[in-house]
DNA sequence: AAGACGGGGAG
DNA sequence: CTCCCAGTCTT
């Protein structure tokens, strides 16, 4: 196939003088990209369980929430267990929040589990236990932003939406704008630009396909350009794959509040499972164990709970800091204080 | 526009 | 040890 572009996408050609950030894409190029991505997807997509026929909209929604900022491979087993336990919104709405947080396991950002249960409550109570189909309605639910709303509307209901996750943004930016990576977050212009690239036919396959392509071929770190069926028209590749000027600032982990919060949550989960009671850990024991580290106090706890509390101490013996984080966790709904105990929330 | 928010695994 | 993952929500 001979590709004759009417004008090349890139900074060097901008006859109209309009923004080159998101250049107009010549129709024949766009058609070839769409056909190629869709064919590639139908041929080589991963066999993810939530892509199976008859997967409920709710199950798809759950998969999307779990996949936020989380590699799909790590989501799969958690998703299976979750859907087995709570197949419908009403099931999740009725579950004890402590169980929900425990089932969330170590997927990260546990507030997502809270928001998901809240969404389930709204769907069960106000929406006849049915997931809404439009992005507008979906975005009103807690924990669902523009990406997840578009994804659920497309993948669960076949509506024509613009799915714009980190993969899609990277693929489109490379192919058509010649840059290595997208900005921190998509703006109005980028969203409108991406929307114009969605085909009328097979838009679901396009949405899922570009995402999958970004996850498997046009990856952030080491893209497999040799295997890319679009390498000849990819603007970024043709420019010699220039590195973006500014690298994203890397987030710290060791020593951060996030790490310590996670360790405290671990202790509460351990207490929940160990049967130190659904009432959690005595706050004075927790505090004393952290500050004074009296082994005798740990003896009053189950072994796994004691280990988790000891881990908190390893990270910090700063009682003020720990008290502040506990207070934050309570405010966030991730923990509760009852009768001098700290525990996972029981509602 | 910038930060906060988890945790893990690949390079 | 750095990077980055099917983002969302709050300053």
From TrEMBL:
<feature type="compositionally biased region" description="Polar residues">
    <location>
        <begin position="13"/>
        <end position="22"/>
    </location>
</feature>
<keyword id="KW-0326">Glycosidase</keyword>
<keyword id="KW-0408">Iron</keyword>
<dbReference type="InterPro" id="IPR003651">
    <property type="entry name" value="Endonuclease3_FeS-loop_motif"/>
</dbReference>
<dbReference type="InterPro" id="IPR003265">
    <property type="entry name" value="HhH-GPD_domain"/>
</dbReference>
<dbReference type="Pfam" id="PF10576">
    <property type="entry name" value="EndIII_4Fe-2S"/>
</dbReference>
<keyword id="KW-0004">4Fe-4S</keyword>
<dbReference type="GO" id="GO:0046872">
    <property type="term" value="F:metal ion binding"/>
</dbReference>
<feature type="region of interest" description="Disordered">
    <location>
        <begin position="1"/>
        <end position="24"/>
    </location>
</feature>
<dbReference type="GO" id="GO:0034039">
    <property type="term" value="F:8-oxo-7,8-dihydroguanine DNA N-glycosylase activity"/>
</dbReference>
<dbReference type="GO" id="GO:0051539">
    <property type="term" value="F:4 iron, 4 sulfur cluster binding"/>
</dbReference>
<dbReference type="GO" id="GO:0032357">
    <property type="term" value="F:oxidized purine DNA binding"/>
</dbReference>
<dbReference type="InterPro" id="IPR044298">
    <property type="entry name" value="MIG/MutY"/>
</dbReference>
<comment type="similarity">
    <text>Belongs to the Nth/MutY family.</text>
</comment>
<dbReference type="GO" id="GO:0000701">
    <property type="term" value="F:purine-specific mismatch base pair DNA N-glycosylase activity"/>
</dbReference>
<dbReference type="GO" id="GO:0035485">
    <property type="term" value="F:adenine/guanine mispair binding"/>
</dbReference>
<dbReference type="InterPro" id="IPR023170">
    <property type="entry name" value="HhH_base_excis_C"/>
</dbReference>
<feature type="domain" description="HhH-GPD">
    <location>
        <begin position="66"/>
        <end position="216"/>
    </location>
</feature>
<keyword id="KW-0234">DNA repair</keyword>
<dbReference type="Pfam" id="PF00633">
    <property type="entry name" value="HHH"/>
</dbReference>
<dbReference type="GO" id="GO:0006298">
    <property type="term" value="P:mismatch repair"/>
</dbReference>
<keyword id="KW-0479">Metal-binding</keyword>
<dbReference type="InterPro" id="IPR011257">
    <property type="entry name" value="DNA_glycosylase"/>
</dbReference>
<dbReference type="GO" id="GO:0006284">
    <property type="term" value="P:base-excision repair"/>
</dbReference>
<keyword id="KW-0227">DNA damage</keyword>
<keyword id="KW-0378">Hydrolase</keyword>
<dbReference type="InterPro" id="IPR000445">
    <property type="entry name" value="HhH_motif"/>
</dbReference>
<dbReference type="InterPro" id="IPR004036">
    <property type="entry name" value="Endonuclease-III-like_CS2"/>
</dbReference>
<dbReference type="Pfam" id="PF00730">
    <property type="entry name" value="HhH-GPD"/>
</dbReference>
<keyword id="KW-0411">Iron-sulfur</keyword>
<protein>
    <recommendedName>
        <fullName>Adenine DNA glycosylase</fullName>
        <ecNumber>3.2.2.31</ecNumber>
    </recommendedName>
</protein>
């Amino acid at each position: 196939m001979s590709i004759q572009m009417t004008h090349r996408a890139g900074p060097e050609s901008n006859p109209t003088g309009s923004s080159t950030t998101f250049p107009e894409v010549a129709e024949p190029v766009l058609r070839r990209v769409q056909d190629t991505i869709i064919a590639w997807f139908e041929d080589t997509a991963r066999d993810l369980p939530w892509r199976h026929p008859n997967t409920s909209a709710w199950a798809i929604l759950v998969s999307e929430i779990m996949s936020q900022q989380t590699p799909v491979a790590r989501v799969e087993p958690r998703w299976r267990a979750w859907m087995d336990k709570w197949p419908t919104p009403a099931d999740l709405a009725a579950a004890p929040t402590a169980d929900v947080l425990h089932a969330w396991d170590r997927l990260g950002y546990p507030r997502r589990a809270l928001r998901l249960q809240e969404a389930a409550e709204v769907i069960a109570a106000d929406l006849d236990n049915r997931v809404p189909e439009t992005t507008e309605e979906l975005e009103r639910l807690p924990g669902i932003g523009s990406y997840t709303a578009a994804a659920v509307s497309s993948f669960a209901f076949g509506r024509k939406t613009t799915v714009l996750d980190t993969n899609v943004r990277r693929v489109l930016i490379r192919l058509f704008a010649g840059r290595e990576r997208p900005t921190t977050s998509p703006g109005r212009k980028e969203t409108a630009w991406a929307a114009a690239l969605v085909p009328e036919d097979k838009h679901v396959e396009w949405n899922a396909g570009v995402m999958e392509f970004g996850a498997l071929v046009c990856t952030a770190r080491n893209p497999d350009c040799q295997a890319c069926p679009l390498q000849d028209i990819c603007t970024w590749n043709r420019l010699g794959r220039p590195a973006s000027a500014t690298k994203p600032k890397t987030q710290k982990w060791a020593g951060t509040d996030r790490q310590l919060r996670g360790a405290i949550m671990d202790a509460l989960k351990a207490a929940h499972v160990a049967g130190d009671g659904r009432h959690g850990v005595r706050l004075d024991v927790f505090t004393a164990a952290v500050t004074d580290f009296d082994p005798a106090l740990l003896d009053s706890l189950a072994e796994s709970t004691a280990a988790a509390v000891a881990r908190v101490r390893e990270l910090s013996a700063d009682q003020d800091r720990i008290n502040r984080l506990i207070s934050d966790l309570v405010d966030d709904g991730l923990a509760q204080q009852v009768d001098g105990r700290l525990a996972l929330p029981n509602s």
